[in-house]
Amino acid sequence: MAKLCPIFQAFPILHQPTHPLPKLSNKRRVMLLDRLDGVPEQFGYIVRAAATCYRSARVLKAVEPDEEAKKHPFLIDTDTASDDAVALIMALRSPQVQVLAVTTVAGNVDVHQASRNALYTAELCASNVPVFTGAEKPLKRAHVSADWFHGRDGLGDHGYAPPRRVPEKQSAVDAIIETIEGNPGLLVVTLGPLTNVAQAVQRKPGIAAKVSRCVVMGGAPCCEGNVTPAAEYNIWCDPEAARIVVRSGLPIELVGWHLCRGEALLNPSDIQQILSFGTPVAKFAIECNSRAQQAILKQTGEHGISLPDPVAMAVAMDPSIITSQSAHFVDVETESELTRGMTVVDRLNVTDDERNRDVWASRLIGGRKAKIFWTIDSVRWKQALYASLK
Q1: At what angle do helices 378-389 and 308-317 cross, to 10 degrees?
Q2: CB of 258 closer than 8 Å to CB of 222
Q3: Of 107, 125, 176, 362, which has the highest C-beta tally within 10 A?
Q4: Where do the structural domains in the chain lie, given as residue ranges?
Q5: Is the model's pLDDT at 171 over the cut of 80?
Q6: 116 vs 80, 119, 126, 154, 191, CA distance in Å?
Q7: CB within 8 A of 318, min separation 6: which ones?
Q8: Is 64 a residue whose pLDDT tops 70?
């Protein structure tokens, strides 16, 4: 038993069989499994006990060790495809971030493929972050994937092995609500359609006030869209959900599609620099975006890889990357097929004019302006990406 002491000291509850297994926060669940990495096989029953504890835990507030308390708690909602995967790598490998949960939604790929891709990416980062499967389709519309951009599996169709883990049994919406309620002040990052988040705030409107920042990768607030002339894909895919979210009172920070273009695009030189790092995550980040690289060339004529979700993650992790921003009322078009999913931004602050007041009444009464990001420091954004892939 002497050899067991360090393990039992690390997890004292495991040698108290008369005690019920404790309820843990997502932070503690991730930490528990991370600390079990490398435990000898003969101690498998301890691993099973910890796993039972992990699976049955509710997401409650807990006291964390000092080093964990210094990390910023994140919840990430994603339709995990190639650029989402790179964004997950940035968060999961950051020493400043503790990802409490990853929730998946139908978007770039079907929701079950999104969960598989999220789990695969987490394993690549040696992370045991829980992954929760969410909405299989938009609130009121059929699901239309972006396989033309990301490939059928969302990761460029390279035949990556299936993940070893499976998603949690709890639904994404329940996980979002419990994670926010158990960790007030956390930061929410959305990388896909907003279906899950919309359902969460509809069920529990009060959670909006418990979120410190809600960084939304979505919209084309200043220019053309990437799926229609008027709309960016994440908002276009489920415009009804997007409208609910922007009207929910969440502290929205909108990271539009335009921020990943131009100098922010990974050019051929940037790609070679990343590959020179020689790490598995660097190779994966470039390889899984191979189809996306072809698609962006056909779509815009730009040579390189556009990474909207990693740009959003970089902004979430370090908002000083933003060089120009302003706060405005935002709404989303849901009726017109011509402009479906258009993010309408009151950049000139004219919504309260007599000619606009009736149309914008629901946004003006108790509404909250969103932060709109117009430009970023492309050099610093790429430095943040490089740091996560080395």
Answers
A1: 90
A2: yes
A3: 107
A4: 2-56, 70-262+306-349+357-389
A5: yes
A6: 8, 5, 15, 10, 16
A7: 380, 384
A8: no
